[in-house]
Amino acid sequence: MRRTERYPVSGSNSLWQIYRTVSFWKVARNFAVIQVGRYTPWLSVKNWLYRTFLGMEVGKQTAFALMVVPDVMFPERISVGDNSVIGFNTTLLAHEYLIEEYRLGDVVIGNNVMIGANTTVLPGVSIGDGAIVSAATLVNQDVPPGAFAGGNPMKIIYTAEEMAERRTASLKA
Questions:
Q1: Cα dihedral sign, 163-168-169-173
Q2: What angle separates helix 24-39 from helix 43-54, to the nearest 10 degrees?
């Protein structure tokens, strides 16, 4: 279950009311920083940009690949632990604007997490330490620590225990 806060709106859909929920200038600044970050080849510079200007929590030795898109409206609600890899063209969302409401939720990515390319992480989701998320996955629920998950919608393919068994079996072979 995703943990999001729900805010009802009336009249036009919530996206038409976006600047009642977040400052235009904040979105413009965040957009510019994210565009620079998407193309920056230096991981330490990218992490500094995200920490300094977006208010994201970014762990040591974390790698955001080329073209990653953090949430442009609420990036401060994203945290990524140490030594994690966020794959090419992945989107990390902390908001959803719907017809009659908008929702906000923290995205918490643990330590030593691998997220494959072209993945979308929805608001209110946690990905546990040591988890692996395959490419092109829609992360619409929590991923337990050490698990291997993938698909659209996402399913747990192997638990941490099953992953450990597979590693042990491959070492014996």
A1: positive
A2: 170
Q: What is the DSSP string of 70-100?
A: E-SS-GGGEEE-TT-EE-TT-EE-SEEE-SS
Q: Which backbone phi and psi does 59 adopt, to 5 degrees?
A: -75, 170
Please state the domain count of the chain: 1
Q: Which of 98, 100, 106, 61 is nearest to 81 (CA)?
A: 61
Which structural domain range is residue 93 located in?
5-172
> Of all residues in the chain, what percent carry a pLDDT higher than 70?
100
Please report the pLDDT score of residue 172 as a whole number. 83
Tokens of 19: 């600047």
Where residue 130 sits, what CATH number does that domain have?
Answer: 2.160.10.10
Using the predicted structure, report yes or no on whether residue 147 has a pLDDT greater than 80.
yes
Q: Strand 148-150 to strand 101-104: parallel, antiparallel, or no bridges (unpaired)?
A: unpaired
- At residue 58's C-alpha, the angle toward residues 121 and 160, to 5°, is 55
Q: What is the pLDDT of residue 164?
A: 84
Q: What is the DSSP string of 135-156?
A: TT-EE-S-B-TT-EEETTTTEE
